[in-house]
Amino acid sequence: MAIITAAERARLARILGMLGSEHAGERAAAALQAEAFRKRHGLNWEGMLSLPPVETIKVTPRPKPAPTPESPAWTAPPPPPSAPKEADRPADYAEAWYANVRAKEAARKAAGPPPYEPSTWTQSPPLGPWQPRPDIIGRWTAIMFWGVCAFVILCAFMDPQLHR
Questions:
Q1: Residue at 117 is within a domain
Q2: Per-residue pLDDT band at 27 (split at 50, 70, 90)
Q3: In a domain, 14, yes or no
Q4: In total, how many domains does the chain have?
Q5: Do residues 19 and 30 touch, judged by C-beta distance below 8 A?
Q6: Quick one: three-class SS letters along 120-140?
């Protein structure tokens, strides 16, 4: 005999309750779900109707203790750490920063421009017959793009529903 839990029976009850819907689609979906439930548990309908009742145990939750003045129910979170204030910084903080920037700029200018290195151009290997040349790829892409655009516009004008 198959074991069907109380939760599964509650689900089956909801599925069977949908069989009374006024919408045909809901009724059909509920019938399919009920049949899938029956197959999943390996029972026939007679066996499902003759299952013994399930014991239900009512569990009452424990009451929450009342908060006491010694232990409040809510405490405020700690304040967020604050950023350093202008008063916490040294008086010459901005001047020291600008002096550092000026020193780096002067060192870069004293070093002069980077050395010139001519780029070495190498000819690419010859292309085979199946590889398009790079100068043709751009033209081919443009031709295909505008061709597709023209086809879409033509199809839109040929649509008989637009000319009613």
A1: no
A2: very high
A3: yes
A4: 2
A5: yes
A6: CCCCCCCCCCCCCCHHHHHHH
